[in-house]
Amino acid sequence: MMLLEVLGEDEEGNRLSDLASRTGLAPSTVHRLLTTLEQRQFIRFDPAGRLWHIGRQAFAVGSAFARQRNIAATALPFLRRLRDQSRETVNLGIADEGEMLVVSQIESREIARAVTHVGGSVPMAASAMGKAILATYADEDVTAILACHGLRRLTANTLTRRAGLVAELETVRRNGHAVDDEECQPGLRCVGATVYDHQGEALCAISVSGLATRITGDRIAVLGSLVAEAAGRLTLGLGGILPGHIAAE
């Protein structure tokens, strides 16, 4: 599993010696495991550069995680439309063990753009998608998540105190969208909103992300409306129920 994780992090490939160093395993053990994984097509070997890469079977198994929720395929046209409206990179993520896992992404057509690799994850409290989902939780549930996973500092702007996050979540509830103000990566801002399931509970979230020089304070409100509208359309497209509709019923 460590070998697969390391190989999945580096698109350029790794030599056997590098894998042994990064995993702490003996070279002989690494070679034996690599051979088995290659036979099952979880990894592949490039003899020209003597580099090991992630294989197609790893993708097939990993894709099943998203397919279980039947989200990514349905979301694609909604994400593309939002990308075209915002001209920024659009992300779809699900909450998993206190982090937001990016399961789908439509890149901006701008030359300089924000890109978080599909399969990457960030702490919920440091991401727009994560804060959008946390804002739908009861206070005791947020407290339980923080007690388990804490508030890890990623940048100078990352929220590291519970009181700060609680106040931020109140703002999210009022505005209908969440903002990552260079809290995950310096120079990048994101605006996110929640997508709901058939019970009106948070299913996943979507966001637009881009350079802080483009996503200025004045533009955040505009993007927030676009993202919230797209999240609402996707909710209905997935057979979900918006919280306001539940109250009306």
Automatic annotation (TrEMBL):
IclR-ED domain segment(s): 57-240
GO MF annotations for this entry? DNA binding; DNA-binding transcription factor activity
Q: Does the keyword DNA-binding apply?
A: yes
Q: Show the InterPro entries listed in the entry.
A: GAF-like_dom_sf, HTH_MetabolicPath_Reg, Tscrpt_reg_IclR_C, Tscrpt_reg_IclR_N, WH-like_DNA-bd_sf, WH_DNA-bd_sf
Question: Which superkingdom heads the taxonomic lineage of this protein's source?
Answer: Bacteria
From the UniProt annotation, give the residues forming the signal peptide. Answer: none
Q: Name one Pfam family in it.
A: IclR_C
Record keywords, A-Z = DNA-binding, Transcription, Transcription regulation
The record's section on PROSITE patterns has: HTH_ICLR, ICLR_ED
Q: Share an example GO biological-process annotation for this protein.
A: negative regulation of DNA-templated transcription
**Record-annotated HTH iclR-type domain positions:** 1-56
What is this protein identified as? IclR family transcriptional regulator
